[in-house]
Design brief:
about 375 residues, 6-stranded parallel beta sheet, 14 helices, about 40% helix
């Protein structure tokens, strides 16, 4: 198959959509398919690099931090794609590049499969003065989208239920995004725990809580910092790995709460380094309820880190309380679960780490590629049968 993936986000940006696209394209190529990616350039200039077409764009930070919108694209790039002749398009974002996906699909008479990565109703504070208005806008946009694609892939049961509530018009199937399990396994045996701890002056007996991800308002990292005011009394350090528009606010919050000594901001790290930073930790923590799936949850599990996360539907079937982590609902539970971890003996800690790695198997990159390939085949068959 010739597969065109369209996405508003791609490398060098680091986020869950980019990771999902990168892993999927690699797996599809391993399975013998030709893959090209159509995305937005981080400048106004369009160019092609390694089968990736970067379309010129301009910043749209007034809508969402780091968001961009497409500039008029040279017909040459679209003609080249048309001559290449994709058999199917897999769109990953609902805005700028989706309109190009529709144009190409219409002219080629091919299906579009769409992955619904973002719970936009959790982002309404960026574009709507009232959350109820924002939710209504999101529902209308999503229903309209569902009439323009052949099927939607939901990364979790949580997203499936949301889409069903919106009344989408097309079939929806659940396929969790995949990760390269072997890459994270390699980091476990290279002494990275000691190296990263030494870099930040953390002793070997300190309990390190690792948060990995974008520092944006909807990620609710502020809650972790507030909880750290009490958690540090149990001998913990909160390591915040990542960067984003909310970072300065969060740094000011640590100063306000006087927890600067027990909260470490590492800044952004490359995808190749993330496994090393997970290794420095004991528990992976998150207070977000805006995740569709949470790729960092899967990565942490693959590194053998039990999860300590705010209770959320995307974790159903992933976190087994007391076996590979816990889901908390308030500060009291959060602190109690940290105490349980610190009181656990070596055998219990070993069992939880093993259970975490076992839970990560469901996010295998190979399985991800195989299931998405099946959706493509199904939609292409349906399209040819309807022709």
């Amino acid at each position: 198959m010739k597969i065109l993936i369209t996405t508003d986000w791609y490398q060098p940006v680091i986020n869950g959509v980019v990771t999902s696209v990168r892993v999927l394209s690699e797996e599809l190529r391993k399975r013998g398919h030709e893959v090209r990616i159509l995305t937005l350039s981080r400048t106004c200039r369009s160019h092609v690099e390694n089968q990736v077409i970067y379309v010129g764009s301009a910043g749209a930070g007034c809508i969402y931090p780091e968001a961009r919108f497409r500039l008029p694209v040279s017909g040459k790039y679209i003609r080249d794609l048309m001559e290449w002749g994709p058999d199917i398009i897999h769109s990953q974002c609902e805005f700028s590049t989706f309109f190009l996906a529709r144009k190409i699909a219409s002219e080629r008479n091919i299906p579009i499969v769409h992955t619904y990565h973002t719970i936009y109703e959790d982002y309404t504070h960026y574009f709507s003065p009232r959350k109820t208005w924002g939710k209504e806008i999101v529902e209308k946009i999503t229903r309209r989208l569902s009439c323009r694609v052949s099927s939607i892939i939901a990364p979790s049961e949580k997203i499936l239920k949301i889409l069903e509530g919106y009344g989408v018009a097309c079939p929806v199937c659940v396929i969790p995004s995949g990760i390269n399990l072997s890459a994270f396994a390699e980091c476990r045996n290279a002494g990275w725990r000691e190296k990263i701890r030494k870099k930040f002056g953390i002793s070997h007996d300190t309990t390190v809580l690792v948060y990995m991800g974008r520092l944006a308002k909807e990620k609710n990292v502020e809650e972790l910092i507030r909880y750290q005011k009490e958690a540090e009394k149990q001998g913990t350090v909160l390591m915040v790995v990542g960067d984003g528009p909310h970072r300065r606010y969060l740094e000011e919050k640590t100063e306000e709460l006087k927890v600067q000594k027990s909260v470490i901001f590492t800044g952004s790290v490359s995808p190749e380094e993330t496994g090393r930073y997970y290794q420095a930790g004991d528990l992976f923590v998150s207070a977000s309820t805006s995740e569709t799936q949470g790729m960092t949850y899967a990565e942490a599990l693959a590194c053998g880190l039990p999860l300590l996360c705010r209770k959320d539907g995307c974790l159903n079937g992933i976190v087994e309380d007391g076996k590979n982590g816990w889901q908390y609902q308030d500060m009291e539970e959060f602190l109690n679960f940290i105490k349980k971890w610190r009181d656990a003996d070596e055998d219990e800690i070993f069992r939880m780490r093993c259970a975490a790695r076992e839970a990560a198997r469901r996010f295998s990159a190979g399985e991800f590629g195989r299931k998405v390939e099946m959706v493509y085949e199904q939609e292409m068959h349906r399209k040819s049968g309807a022709a």
